[in-house]
Amino acid sequence: MDDLEAIRQKRLAELQQQQQQQQQSSPQNDAQAAYQQEQAQAERDAQVQAVLRQVMTPEARERLTRLRLSRKELVEQLESQLVMLAQNGRLQTKIDDEKLKVLLTQMQPQKRQTSITRM
């Protein structure tokens, strides 16, 4: 019985040591994975900005930057569409401020008119 108990104690100690090692290495792995994700996102953002510099005038990019503060989702959607159009070669001219305004109004969800009628 003493041998069995000794084996159990030894195995328990091994398992505890493995668990401690995993806990110590896990934050490092998580931090490294988060860093890699952050780097990949920064690289994608840089590529998008490079494409936008090619297809938009400085005034249009400035308007888009200001709009990002209040309508981030709309700006991201517009940027992805512009990048896709540019990559497919479907943009013949640069997007200036006036064209950007038109695109933004087209992308805005149409407000429904509601009326209340008395029965």
Q: Mind sketching the topology for me?
A:
Elements (H helix, E strand, L loop, with lengths): L1 H54 L2 H11 L3 H16 L9 H11 L12
Helix pairs in contact: 1-3, 2-3, 2-4
Approximate helicity band: over 70%
Distance between the termini: 89 Å
Q: Major sheet: size, sense and barrel closure?
A: none
Number of helices: 4
Strand content: under 5%
Large-scale geometry: elongated
List low-confidence stretches: none
Structural Rg = 28 Å
Instruction: Give the helix/strand class.
Output: mainly alpha
Overall residue-averaged pLDDT value? 86
Order of helices and strands: HHHH
Number of strands: 0
What would your notes on this structure say?
The chain starts with a helix and ends in a 12-residue tail after the last helix. Helix 1 packs across helix 3 (72-87), helix 2 runs antiparallel to helix 3 (72-87) and helix 2 (58-68) runs parallel beside helix 4 (97-107). It contains 4 helices and no strands. The chain is an all-alpha fold and 119 residues long. The model has no long low-confidence stretch (mean pLDDT 86). The longest helix is centred in the N-terminal third of the chain and has 54 residues, at 2-55.
Kindly list the characteristics that best describe this protein.
77% helix, elongated, mainly alpha, 119 residues
Task: Provide a short characterization of the protein structure.
The chain is mainly α and 119 residues long.
